[in-house]
Amino acid sequence: MSWLGQRHTRRGALATATGLIAGAALPATWPTRAAASTPSEAPTLSAAASYTNPVIWQDFADIDIIRVGDTYYYSASTMHYSPGAPILRSYDLVNWEFAGHSVPVLDFGAKYDLNGARGYVRGIWASSLAYRPSNRTFYWLGQIDFAKTYIYTATAVEGPWSRLTTINNAYYDAGMLIDDDDTIYVAYGNTTISVAQLSADGRSQVRTQQVFSTPSSVGTLEGSRFYKINGNYYIFLTRPANGQYILKSTSGPFGPYTMRQVLLDLRGPVSGGGVPHQGGLVQTQNGAWHYMAFVDAYPGGRIPVLAPITWTSDGWPVVQLVSGAWGTSYPSPVVPPPPRQVRPLTGVDTFDGTTLKPAWEWNHNPDNGKWSVSNGLTLSTATVTNDLYWARNTLTHRIQGPTSTATIQLDYSAMRDGDRAGLALLRDSSAWIGIKRDGGTTRVVMMNGLTMDGNWNTTGTGTEVASAALSGGRVWLRAGADIRPGAPRPGTFSYSTDGINFTRLGPAFTMGNTWQFFMGYRFAIFNYATQALGGSVRVARFELSTP
Q1: Taking Cα atoms as reference points, which of 86, 85, 105, 82 lies closest to residue 97?
Q2: What would the mean pLDDT of 93-119 be, rounded to a whole number?
């Protein structure tokens, strides 16, 4: 049965775009230079003693990973969050920072604006990131809504990114390869795997051809990553969500291909989490290979794990195991010393400057006339609704596992009657702490029971389970999240009037751990109206901290 035909049982659909070195065809060593300077002399190689999996305990699924010069880049899916397709940067494959987004806005229809329809669990699925040395340009490719494929380009991952073309074929779960001769190929499909060749300018399809049909004994394969290594062509595929396979051709990108299993039902490194799968392969500067996969680890989402790869004498990859399992720890990759330390994925944001940092993503596209950043984040009400899932300009941040706390400092003095503003644990089953203003008075409340059904329609707009009187115009709101897989998965809420002494509000909220929504829980800052627009709040500070 095709996962494409099962909208809500399609576990691997979002993961498909992750793949090997998706950036360029690989000889034995990587030849390209980064757009930034690369040392002209061979650098001294160094490494910390070891690293621990997961390398990032945040929700970054459907991984594509490449190296350009001495810098590694990691792309992920984001579905209904905007901007889409975040890019992380690293110099050692272990320590990562946000760099930007490949898709600046989800301009694929009104539903992504929460305009008469909603785009939950649509949008940016598994997609591909590549670097083209001939024009020193990054390429992002992904299909939207099973209808069309879009390609965006930029000369730096920070952007600006712009749409290069729209192709009227849906390259589902695609992996892009830029061959030694600069030809662009795309591997894609679910169970039936095809390869397309694009025009020299990357704007159109020249040809496409089926190259492989998955045996019924294997079932579903998807999530293509496309590589050329030592003259052979490889398509790296996932069996969602418990296996990984690879196809090899010695005769060219259109095959014929032979298949080999890479892993199946392999014990992963995250207690209570799933089997490492999907993702991609990448080669370090000294020729060593690594596989960045992800494991299902709900309620937090799908989180990346790294393992070294060796190759058989006849050209097949082998994951290096520890006691028969994907290791919780491995020797760190041997790489040149980093040019600087990467920015941590946790810490404080005071919303300095005039733009949001790339760690932030909106729930659907924002109304850009209703928010601003200037030494603080101002959110004006953008929607009149009683349903958080319909409220525009809800700003989200990934949760750091295994446990973390988000705290915001909120000025609510400009709220109007009927307004609701606060901090949520957001998914298809949600809860929040925040301010309700009604009849000229304000209360701090905890709400739970915000729910969706399997078609992502709202089934519950929330129940107030605790409250306290509040005055003074300023409050600190805090949400804690334990996203370790398994029970009890608690989310907790508290507030403070001085930023020092916090008071717990309401019972623990049990976060859901089903996979069908795909994206994990996020911290979410919101402000919406239930009566009329015109109110606003200001967030002076956000802090993501771990114990």
Answers
A1: 86
A2: 98
Percent of the chain residues topping a pLDDT of 90:
91
Residues 431, 454: Cα–Cα separation, whole Å: 18
d(CA 380, CA 384) in angstroms, rounded, equals 12
Cβ(426)–Cβ(363) below 8 Å: yes
40-69 pLDDT tens trace = 233 445 556 999 999 999 999 999 999 999
- Closest to 478 measured CA to CA, from 512, 450, 515, 444: 444
Helix (H/G/I), strand (E/B), else coil: 151:
strand
The two three-digit tokens of residue 110, written as one number: 């009104």
The β-bridge relationship of strands 96-103 and 503-504 is: unpaired
Cα–Cα distance measured from residue 476 to residue 467, given in angstroms and rounded to the nearest whole number = 15
Model-wide pTM > 0.85: yes
Q: How far apart are CA 381 and CA 395, in angstroms?
A: 13
Nearest one of 65, 79, 62, 86 to 238, comparing CA atoms: 62
Give the DSSP letter of residue 459. Answer: E
The one-letter code for the residue type at 394 is T
In this prediction, residue 48 carries a pLDDT of 61
Distance of CA 213 to the CA centre of its chain: 29
Can you tell me the distance from the alpha carbon of 188 to that of 171, in angstroms, rounded to the nearest whole number?
5
pLDDT tens column, 262-302:
999 999 999 999 999 999 999 999 999 999 999 999 999 99
Dihedral sign, Cα of residue 492, residue 497, residue 498, residue 499? positive
Whether 477 contacts 445, CB under 8 Å: no
Say how far apart CA 63 and CA 65 lie, in whole Å.
Answer: 6
CA dihedral 521, 511, 61, 366 (to 10 degrees): -20
Q: Is the dihedral of CA 317, 9, 359, 57 positive or negative?
A: negative
* Cα–Cα distance measured from residue 243 to residue 241, given in angstroms and rounded to the nearest whole number: 6
Q: How far apart are CA 418 and CA 413, in angstroms?
A: 14
Please say whether the beta carbons of 308 and 292 come within 8 A: no
Residue 332, token pair as written in the block: 């760190």
Rounded-to-integer distance, Cα 276 and Cα 448, Å: 33
Bond into 488 cis (ω within 30): yes
Instruction: Name the region of 497 (left: φ>0; alpha: ψ -120 to 50; beta: rest).
Output: alpha
Average pLDDT over residues 323-335: 97
| Best CA proximity match to 275, nearest among 319, 235, 326, 320 | 326
Contact 520, 389 (CB under 8 A): no
Q: Is the peptide bond before 36 cis (omega within 30 degrees of 0)?
A: no
Pairwise CA distance, residues 202 & 141, whole Å:
10
| DSSP H helical ranges for 121-265 | none
CB 59 within 8 A of CB 519: yes
* CA gyration radius, the chain: 23
User: Taking a C-beta distance cutoff of 8 angstroms, is the pair 307, 330 a contact?
Assistant: yes
Residue 244's pLDDT is: 98
Residue type, 278: Q
Q: Which of 296, 241, 244 is nearest to 273 (CA)?
A: 296
